[in-house]
């Protein structure tokens, strides 16, 4: 069975254990997840499922881990309590693992260099985004920003790297109302990453349109220097644009999102670029 409607893997749910069987592993997803779970169990226990056993070279690869209580935040209107708990979990995640340990971790599947290249490649293809004036305005503003030097500045990280999910899907955020805390699941894209990029991923993943999680409120609770806050804002522009460019009538993200998502994302792009 699957855990919820956002899952892309086969899950067998027991009372205390989850067995995850991968339907895709060409990017090393099982190895990434197993490595992340082991690091988290050592340095930040309780923030993610505890790894139990893995058969990484089987077909399909399989990981057994503990089952965590709670429900995913995707599709919910996040409360002040949930947002504070999410910020606390992110602060812990990004501080708990020593920098020298993170430095030895494989780079995340999605990172600034990859995201910049993908966004520019999609813009260069001039995707069909329809004729809505607001959408066309967002495309023009977005391509102008992508053509500037600003995205290139994001590919060099002046701060220590962190272990990150590299996936801002709010379906990866698990809320435990009994303990009033947040944990993170689905680490198959994880790895060493830029913290500002990771925070922007949480703020601007397309899943934000399925429910409500106020980005500014979340960011206000995070420990950041002004220079890092500015990098987060620039990354939010990049990630919002990346999703926008996939939402035309034949875009790869269109089948997974409701009617009107393109127009809403156009407004988001213009807001962030304003």
Describe the protein's architecture and organization:
By secondary structure, the protein is an alpha+beta fold. It has a single domain (74-273), classed as Aminoglycoside phosphotransferase (APH), C-terminal lobe (Aminoglycoside 3'-phosphotransferase, Chain: A, domain 2). It is built from ten helices and nine strands. It has a four-stranded antiparallel β-sheet, covered by helices on one side. A three-stranded antiparallel β-sheet has the order 5-7-8. Helix 5 (133-147) crosses helix 10 and helix 7 crosses helix 9 (226-244).
Question: Layout of SSEs?
Answer:
Elements: E1 10-13, E2 17-21, H1 29-43, E3 51-55, E4 62-66, E5 71-72, H2 80-96, H3 99-102, H4 112-124, H5 133-147, H6 150-153, E6 162-164, E7 173-176, E8 181-184, E9 191-193, H7 195-204, H8 215-220, H9 226-244, H10 261-273
Antiparallel strand pairs: 1-2, 2-4, 3-4, 5-7, 6-9, 7-8
Helix pairs in contact: 4-5, 4-9, 5-10, 7-9, 9-10
Order of helices and strands: EEHEEEHHHHHEEEEHHHH
DSSP E strands, number = 9
CATH superfamily descriptor: Aminoglycoside phosphotransferase (APH), C-terminal lobe
Radius of gyration: 18 Å
In order across it, which strands form the biggest sheet? 1-2-4-3
The CATH architecture assignment turns out to be: Alpha-Beta Complex
Give the % helix.
40-55%
The main pleated sheet reads as: 4 strands, antiparallel
- Could you report the average pLDDT, rounded to the nearest whole number? 95
Look at the helices and sheets and give the structural class.
alpha+beta
Question: What is the domain tally?
Answer: 1
The helix count comes to 10
Low-pLDDT runs: 1-7
**Can you tell me the overall shape?**
globular
């Amino acid at each position: 069975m699957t855990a919820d409607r956002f899952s892309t893997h086969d899950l067998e749910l027991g009372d205390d254990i989850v067995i995850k069987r991968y339907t895709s592993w060409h990017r090393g997803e099982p190895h990434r997840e197993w490595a992340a779970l082991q690091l988290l169990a050592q340095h930040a226990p309780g923030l993610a499922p505890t790894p139990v056993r893995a058969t990484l070279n089987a077909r399909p690869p399989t990981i057994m881990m503990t089952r965590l209580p709670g429900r995913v935040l995707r599709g919910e209107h996040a409360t002040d309590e949930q947002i504070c708990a999410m910020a606390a979990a992110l602060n812990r995640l990004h501080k708990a693992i020593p920098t020298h340990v993170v430095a030895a971790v494989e780079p995340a599947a999605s990172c600034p260099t990859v995201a910049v290249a993908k966004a520019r490649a999609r813009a260069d293809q001039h995707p069909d985004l329809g004729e809505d004036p607001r959408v066309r305005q967002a495309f023009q503003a977005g391509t102008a920003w992508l053509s500037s030097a600003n995205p290139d500045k994001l590919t060099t990280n002046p701060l220590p790297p962190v272990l990150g999910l590299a996936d801002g899907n709010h379906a990866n955020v698990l809320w435990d109302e009994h303990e009033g805390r947040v944990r993170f699941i689905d680490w198959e894209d994880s790895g060493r990453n830029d913290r500002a990029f990771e925070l922007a991923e949480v703020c601007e993943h397309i899943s934000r349109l399925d429910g409500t999680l106020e980005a500014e409120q979340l960011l206000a609770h995070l420990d950041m220097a002004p220079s890092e806050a500015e990098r987060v804002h620039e990354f939010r522009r990049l990630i919002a644009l990346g999703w926008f460019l996939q939402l035309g009538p034949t875009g790869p993200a269109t089948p997974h999102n409701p009617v009107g998502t393109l127009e809403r994302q156009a407004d988001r792009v213009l807001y962030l670029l304003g």
